[in-house]
Amino acid sequence: MPRITQSDILHSFHGIREHFHDFVYLSRITEIIISFMPEGLPNQKLFLFFLYLLNMLESSVQIQKDSFYLISQIRLLSLLGYAPRLQGCGRCSARSLHFYPNSGTTLCRQCAANFPVEKETPVKITNKAIHFYSHCIGWPIKITSRRLKPSKETLSELSSLLDIHLTHLLHKKLLTSAFIAGM
């Protein structure tokens, strides 16, 4: 096996370490990656995605940071295969505004009645949140973060929905979730 005896840092991303919020939200992205990826398994797509986020944060002052953090989290979950399905009922594709965390999808009233989710309280979401989420999944991060200007309510709604989704998937709350809530 090869042994690494020396390495040099080519780019330290010092600017990100100087901004507390950037550091905290990148810590959240890192915690999500560590939680879902098996240890020691190389993933070039994921590495390049994370490197892209670091470069975007350090080079751009024009992006709306709160939406950028959320867009990055949504895209990461999509890349990992754990993004919630919000663009229609997960069973019949009908329009629905009720997200069921145990199913990881929205369900229409008819499918929810026929599916064993009666004891689960759905999370109500708005059309604005679904519209923004759809663009986050479909558009490149750079375009999404510059073109879309979501309201604070939309960001808050999607953020809490993703928190609920991640808590359900991991069977625990992310450490950074509690830290960010306290900020």
Short key terms for the protein model shown above:
183 residues, de novo design (two linked rop proteins), globular, alpha+beta, 4-stranded mixed β-sheet, 4 strands, 7% strand
What does this structure look like?
With 183 residues, the chain is α+β, with helices and mostly antiparallel strands. It has a domain at 16-82 and 127-182: de novo design (two linked rop proteins), CATH 1.20.1440. Helices cover 57% and strands 7% of the residues. It is built from nine helices and four strands; from the N terminus they run H-H-H-H-E-E-E-H-E-H-H-H-H. It has helices at residues 14-17, 20-36, 44-59, 65-80, 109-114, 127-138, 141-147, 152-170, 175-182; strands at 85-89, 98-100, 105-106, 123-124. The protein has a four-stranded mixed beta sheet. A hairpin with a 4-residue loop joins strand 2 (98-100) and strand 3. Helix 2 runs parallel beside helix 4, helix 3 runs antiparallel to helix 4 and helix 6 (127-138) crosses helix 8. The longest helix is centred in the last third of the chain and has 19 residues, at 152-170. The termini are far apart. The relative contact order is 0.14. The model has no long low-confidence stretch (mean pLDDT 89).
